[in-house]
Amino acid sequence: MDSEDGIRLRKLQALRPIQTKPIKEMPQSSDHDDHFLKEEEEEPLSPAGRLFHEPNFNIHVIAIMGCKTKVYPDVFKAKLPHTLLKHPRFSSLLDKKDGGTMKWVRTKVNLDKHIIIPDMDSNMNSSSSGDKYLEDYIYNLTKTTIDKSRPLWDLHLLNIKTSEAESVVIFRTHHSLGDGISLMSLLLACMRQISNPEALPTLPTAEKKKNGGPTKLGFVGRIWRCFLGVWWVLQLLRNTFVDVLVFIATALFLKDTQTLIKGPSGSELKPRRIVFKIVSLDDMKLIKNAMDVTINDVAVGITQAGLSKYLNRRYGLDQDNKNTQIENNNNLPNKIRLRSILFINIRPSGGIQKTSTFFQRLFTSTTMAFSNVVGPLEEIGFYSHPMAYLAATTYGQANELMVNFQSYVNKMTIVLSVDEDTIPNPHQLIEDIAESLKLIKDFITKKELAN
């Protein structure tokens, strides 16, 4: 976010939909199958999986699912062995052998050690106290790591009423089990549509713009089209070259401006305050259609606008203790460099220690991380528990701020995972992002009514 250039959004490629398919039943094991199981009971970790076990890259994924009804632990215990545990990663231990080589080793899962049912305070009879309890519960969860003496996941069932749900399910996994998209895909494969209990969740597909069909061009038109094609290729090469240079410079020396939301190194070792807010996905679609952009563009735009508003207020309070007209003034420093990171590992290997150091530099050189995950189009149930919302995020990363967007039916959940030492009031930040969405939507609506 370069303040001197205003808001500049690059057209982002449409997100690919999450693919879900049913988890097939596995045959019962027998003595005849021992040799086959022996061959499959050990699997080496992928390079990306080993990366997430480096000391400064110990990242966990948290999926928060609000339910419209009370949760019943016995149902989860009965269903999990026939669905989630059929996937080898969720029924395997992490084992180091042969000079430090990490492998997945199949084991028997004791669900009593993975399904956590906390004792609830009977005095909490209001949704506001339930919201506070949930937030503090997740905060305390981020102070811990998953016990590596058993498969790297756990499920927390909280029968507590909040402002958005009657109960909450928290699914925590270690990031070495898979990336966010694959983990969400696997989780959704355990769910079914409320309207059709046999059907898997339906996810949106990428929309293709319709062409009006081929048009006949004259000589001048063909020359002009060739010129535009060459110009487009030159611009693509230029932008690619600049992006590669900036990427390398970021890994070596180019750091973001030391703003009020960028703290000192060591953030990956601190607990995270995780807050979320549900906004209207229809409002985001309204902006998307009016501006001819993608939902991802809208998410980036309102995040940037919300961050600008939040930082402007904080800088104003630092400059003047009198809380008057602060938000109406431009209190931001000049030439702020504030960038977000989103990485995908496409390298087969190359030395995990070197890769870990490389990515650690990228995280510490940038201010925040950002993701946007598409969710189901219709209401779904997790083992017959109707879902009110879905929210996902991570902790253990080196950025002080992680912003996640997660869609579900006609809702969009904005999730912030922050280091409270650097961002002490995350609720204000998430309100600023939501308010930015409302302001843009209201402006577009008034403009359309005026026309």
Can you describe this structure?
α9 (352-365) links the parallel β10 (340-341) and β11 (368-373). 34% of the residues lie in helices and 20% in strands. α6 crosses α9 and α7 crosses α10 (426-450). The strands form three sheets. A seven-stranded mixed sheet has the order 5-6-7-2-13-12-8, with helices on one face. It is globular and about 70 Å long. The protein is of the alpha+beta class and 451 residues long. It contains ten helices and 15 strands.
Uncertain segments are: 1-20, 23-39, 344-353
SSE sequence, one letter per element: HEHEHEEEHEEHEHEHHEHEEEEEH
Shape: globular
Strand content: 15-25%
Strand order of the largest sheet: 5-6-7-2-13-12-8
- What radius of gyration results from the CA coordinates? 24 Å
Total number of beta strands? 15
Determine the structural class based on helices, strands and strand pairing.
alpha+beta
Question: Count of helices?
Answer: 10
How much is the average pLDDT? 82
Question: How far is the N terminus from the C terminus?
Answer: 32 Å
Major pleated sheet: 7 strands, mixed
| Helix percentage range | 25-40%
